[in-house]
Amino acid sequence: GVFDYTVFEENEDIDFEIDHFDDEWTAGVALLSTIVDVPMVFGVTGTLDGGISMVALTSSEPCEEVKVQVDDTVYTFDTALQVIVLDTSAVGLMLTPETEPFFRALATAEEVNVRVTLDGEEIDTSISGSSLTEMQFVLTELFAQDVMNCYTADGEDLWDTIDLMQTMTVD
After folding, report:
1. How large a percentage of the chain has pLDDT more than 90?
2. What percent of the chain has pLDDT over 70?
3. pLDDT above 80: residue 61
4. Between the N and C ends of the chain, which has fewer C-beta atoms within 10 Å?
5. Could you tell me the pTM of the whole model?
6. How far apart are CA 139 and CA 125, in angstroms?
7. How far apart are CA 5 and CA 7, in angstroms?
């Protein structure tokens, strides 16, 4: 598939950039939350020829676990292995075939609450208002254009790696 990234160009609420040197584009939404210490971003990276490299909800802190309540369903992600294996201070919940139901639920959610476990401490916040609306706009466009069939070969390789480090359970 080919993804038409121009759908993001005219939306002033989306942080959209094109990098002609690397032949890629990014679209991002800073998710305003009450967690000052754990800022979150929803982002998409794609290629100018219509491929998708990555779709992820990221936190700039090394959380051991992330729980996201989307309406009445709780998605739990064990992210401790990501921090160890990737030797990073950030964690990302990446859109893969395994996590697609989670991201589809986010696209239509009325309420999204997040609990991160950071150094053994649980911190709660919610994603609401314009942050939720902007993230849902991006997700709706991605799924409308069959994002799962637009991934590049490198993006699909990343699925396998991330799925090993990002176990998801649903309650």
Report:
1. 58
2. 94
3. no
4. C
5. 0.91
6. 21
7. 5
The secondary structure of the chain, three-state, reads CCCCHHHHCCCCCCEEEEECCCCEEEEEEEECCCCCCCCEEEEEEEECCCCEEEEEEEECCCCCEEEEEECCEEEEEECHHHHHHHCCCCEEEECCCCCHHHHHHHHHCCCEEEEEEECCEEEEEEECHHHHHHHHHHHHHHHHCCHHHCECHHHHHHHHHHHHHCEEEEC
Token pair listed for 72: 């009445």
Cα–Cα distance for residue pair 146/1, rounded to 1 Å: 8
Do residues 162 and 151 touch, judged by C-beta distance below 8 A?
no
Q: Which among 124, 21, 111, 32 is positioned nearest to 71, based on CA atoms?
A: 111
